Amino acid sequence: MTKLHLPTPASGGIPEQAAGGVLHIDLDALASNWRTLRDHAGGAETAAVVKANAYGTGIEKAVPALSKAGCRTFFVAHLSEAIRARTVAPDATVYVLNGLFSGTGPTYAQFDLRPVLGSIEEIEEWAGFCRAQGEKLNAAIHVDTGMNRLGLTVAQGLTLKDRGELKDFETALLMSHFVSAEESDNPLNRQQIEAFEAIRASLPGIPASLPNSSGIFLRDKPQYALVRPGYALYGGNPTPDQDNPMRPVVGLEARIVQLRWVEADDTVGYNGRWLASAKRRIATISVGYADGYPRAASARGRSGDDLLAGTALVAGQRCSFAGNVSMDLITIDVTDVPEGRVKRGDTVTLIGGELTVDEVGRRAGTIGYEILTGLGSRYARTYSGGQC
Known about the structure:
Layout: E1 21-26, H1 27-39, E2 45-46, E3 48-49, H2 51-55, H3 59-69, E4 73-76, H4 79-88, E5 93-96, H5 105-111, E6 114-117, H6 120-133, E7 138-142, H7 154-158, E8 170-175, H8 187-202, E9 208-209, E10 226-227, E11 250-262, E12 267-268, E13 274-275, E14 280-285, E15 301-302, E16 311-314, E17 317-320, E18 330-333, E19 347-351, H9 357-363, H10 368-373, E20 380-384
Parallel strand pairs: 1-20, 2-10, 3-4, 4-5, 5-6, 6-7, 7-8, 8-9, 13-15
Antiparallel strand pairs: 1-11, 11-14, 11-19, 12-13, 14-18, 16-17
Helix pairs in contact: 1-3, 3-4
């Protein structure tokens, strides 16, 4: 009998035999996607956004794979993520998108990290810290051209040239963020480009960055020094109205823990929201919303109805969810799979093959971004490739 040696929290992941679900992460596909984006970037430096634990793939695995492919600049959301990226990419440039938290200047300096400054208050604090250090440290400045989320207003951006604080640090990058680049004909794209151009013209000589994953594929994309892809690196489609040019990076499988038959008019799952219209065979898998699979993918109605709900590949065949997604379990209608082809202990595919992360997101009433970044800590993780 095989004895499982369960890891301590410090030693790494969960063994596949002990996990309800397994994430398969293809680091060669990740590197290939970065090269594809680089080739579409018109000569701009191609950075990589590795926030949210590299979109669920793992900063400690994704950053070295991207570095080997040639990536030299990384963006994260939080300072803690930046320190993790620095640990595995000691020579890279690392920016922190969510701004400068008060009093964190010494940590930025210690790990040679760059804050993305998005307010006058942050600019003043960073300038003051640099003066106290007696050193002009690097930072980016973020100007909001339409998102109304983070960043200086356009009016503030146009007056930056008059602010003395800019003499106290190195403005290594001027950046903004597209609102709707995935919608190639959205007039907001042109409006944002024009607003950003006006600010850029008032601050000549500073490298600029605007395109995200989808922005790289815009017909009239601006040619700036650096592009910042995120979602597309991990296999998401940056051109939703066209075929996906990216390779899939993440696959998700879950283990069947039980099979049962239910009779006509039986319900399945919490609140009895799914009704068997005839005798049906139900497989229960050991994954649920606590693992990051959205409850909104629940199937509610009668079996056989055309429900926009979650689906899985069971023995290569599409099978619809049955009932509500629970915290730790999902039930699937596998009646149409021959009995000899599905049994307890088999795995089903929740992401992979024809089940793309974009489709999984649509079926859960959300987007692939949320699916990837919500992938939980209870999965076993397997990695392939990465030796670029």
